[in-house]
Amino acid sequence: MTVDDSGPQTPDGDAVPFATEASAAGAPHVSSPQEYDAILLAGFGGPEGQEDVLPFLRNVTRGRGIPDERLEEVAVHYRHFGGVSPINGHNRQLRAAIEAEMRHRGLQHPVYWGNRNWTPYLEDTVKEAAEAGHTRLLAVATSAYSSYSSCRQYREDFARAVLDTGLAGTVQIDKVRQFFDVPGFVRPFAEGLAEALRGFAAEGLAPEEIRVLFATHSIPTGDAERSGPQELGLGEGGAYAAQHRAVGGQIIEQLRAEGHAGAQTGWELVYQSRSGPPSQPWLEPDVCDRIAELPAEGMKAVAVVPLGFLSDHMEVLWDLDEEAMEAAGEAGLRAVRTPTPGVHEAFVAGLVDLLEERMQAVEPERRPHLTDLGPWYDVCRPGCCENVRRGFSPAAAGVKP
User: Fold this and answer.
1) Which pathway is this protein assigned to (predicted)?
2) Per the annotation, does 147 bind a ligand?
3) Domain range holding 252?
C-alpha cells in the first residue's frame, strides 16, 4: 500500500481529538518524534469467576436489550472454564513481557493496562495514570486488524475514558498502527502451521489431502465493508477481510519458499463466533460448516490457524478447541489447532518495535511489514471503521469523525 502523506489526505488544524502534537494535524503517518509519559495496553476484558460472568456479558452487550436468558446461552462457555476467561491472565503476562522488553532496550515508560468490559476499566486506568503525572499516553490495543470492534471501538474507549474522567485537555492518547502484517505478529502463526504440516507429513498425508483454515472472528458484513478507509476500495469484506487474506497468503508463501513439508496444501479464510440475529448477514463461511464439507472434497486433515486472535481466550478455547475440533471428529478428519502469538518473543519484540517506531517517527518506507497493505496508518483516516448501527461516536487516535 502506497500512502501519499500530503495533499487531501493531510487534514489541517486540530483534526484528531485528544492527540499529541505529532498526531493532531491528522497526517496518515507521523513525521515528528514524540515523547510519551507511559504506555497504555487496552484489552477487551473478561470475567474472573462465576459471579462475574453475567455482569460481564451485560457489559459486552450494553444497549442491545438482550435478556439474561439469552446471555446464559453464551455464559455456559465461560462456566465450562469455572467462569474465568483467560484473557485477563494473558494481558497481565503481555504487560509484563512488554515492560521487560522495554527495560531491555532502555525504555523506562510505565505500562498501564485497562479494559473495555471488565476490571481494570480503561476509565480507571487513565485516571490512575493522570494522577501519577502520566498524561501523554501511547496505546496498544490487543487487536491486530481493522474493523469497528477491533480498532475504532478501542479509539472510542479512549475518548470515553478521557471525557468521563474530566481529563479532556489534560490527557492525550495516541495509538500505534494496526499490526496485522508486522513480522513479529505473523511469525508465531507461521511457526505453528509449519509444525502442524510436518506432523501431517509424518503421518503420511499428502498436501492435496490437507486444508489450512485461517480462522478469525466473524463480524456483520456492513461493518466489514466499512472497515478501513473507503477510498482504498478493498472489495467484499473491506480492510478486515483483505488484511486477513493478505496475511494468510503471506504465511503460505513463506512456508513454500522455505520448503516446509505440506506447504503446497490449499488454504482459505473462514469465520467463527457469530453472535448476531439470523436476519443480519455476517461474514462467512463458518469454520465448522467448512470442516463438515472437507471430506467430500477429498480432505483427510485440517489445520485451523486462529489468525484473528492474539491469545488463547474464550473464542479460541471454546469455538475452536471444542466446537471446531468436534466438527472435525464428526467429519472423520485429522485436525490440529495451531498456537496463538501469546507472549512469543518475536511478537512482544514486534510490539515494542511499534512503540519505538511511533516515538521516533520512523519513515513509512522503513517500517517493517509483510504485505502490500502495510505499513498501516498511524492516525486512522476520516470515516474509517464506522459502526453501521451506531454511526460515529467521539474517538481518539483518528481524524474526525
Assistant:
1) Porphyrin-containing compound metabolism; protoheme biosynthesis
2) no
3) 183-337
